[in-house]
Amino acid sequence: MSESHAQPVGKLARRVARILAARGIDPTIPPTEAAEPRPALVAAEARIPARYRGAVAGHPTVTAWVRDIAAGGRPGPGGMPGIAKGRSLLILGTTGTGKTHEAYGAVRSLLIAGVRLRWKATTAADLYAELRPRPGHDTERELMDAARCPLLILDDLGAARSSEWTEEITMRLINRRYNEMLPTLITSNLGPADLRDQLGDRIASRLAEMTERVILDGPDRRRALASERRHTAA
């Protein structure tokens, strides 16, 4: 190749070098590979309530459950595990002890571990509200969507006012997930005896078999944080 053909290339290279230098970029240093964000985790962040988007599971039983579910996942596209059958968790504790935090932390931990995950989260009260019969709304489909979802967070079970209708809905939901051995993260402010009184023996019996119990105790974290903010402001 003649010098007349090489010259424009040299000018272009020097121009690019000047632009990079002006931007503080050294072209002689090889670029580092940035870690690719996990698409499932990125997508999940939009669905997780803002307060729990940084949640991390910390209770030993919850973290052990995450490991078991991740290890038992069936292979999917690209070799990534997908959630399979498994045990559920019943996370009990008084108000403000971190039950919902642990539940969302468990979901985030599974996504971080690379588990392909279709999941749904709802409170018991919201679920009942969604399933109230009304014209033009397929409540049966809504119920089956929650009952068949590979992973379900059912928050604040037992907090809503009980009736024959809510007991029937809860029984159908829990029974379906019990029979199919679908992992479910259930939280409640009630103790085991109160939960049985609120939900009935049929539901309580299935929960006793399908779940590992996690008891969270201690002070109300929300009140403690509010007190700390007031102390700092003072």
Say which CATH homologous superfamily is assigned.
P-loop containing nucleotide triphosphate hydrolases
CATH top level label: Alpha Beta
User: Could you please say which CATH topology applies here?
Assistant: Rossmann fold
- How much of the sequence lies in strands comes to 5-15%
CATH architecture assignment name: 3-Layer(aba) Sandwich
Question: What's the number of helices?
Answer: 10
Strand order of the largest sheet: 4-5-6-3-7
Structural class: alpha/beta
Low-confidence stretches: 1-7, 31-37
Could you report the average pLDDT, rounded to the nearest whole number?
83
**Sheet with the most strands, sense and barrel status:** 5 strands, parallel
Describe this structure in words.
The chain has a single domain, classed as 3-Layer(aba) Sandwich (Rossmann fold). The strands form 2 sheets. It has a 5-stranded parallel sheet with strand order 4-5-6-3-7, with helices on both faces. Strands 1-2 form a two-stranded antiparallel sheet. Helix 7 links the parallel strand 5 (151-155) and strand 6. The chain is built from 10 helices and 7 strands. The chain starts with a helix and ends with a helix. It is of the alpha/beta class and 234 residues long. The model is unreliable at 1-7 and 31-37 (pLDDT under 50). It has helices at 3-22, 39-45, 60-71, 99-112, 124-131, 139-148, 164-180, 192-199, 201-210, 221-233; strands spanning 74-75, 81-82, 88-93, 119-123, 151-155, 184-188, 211-216. Helix content is 51%, strand content 13%. The longest helix has 20 residues, at 3-22.
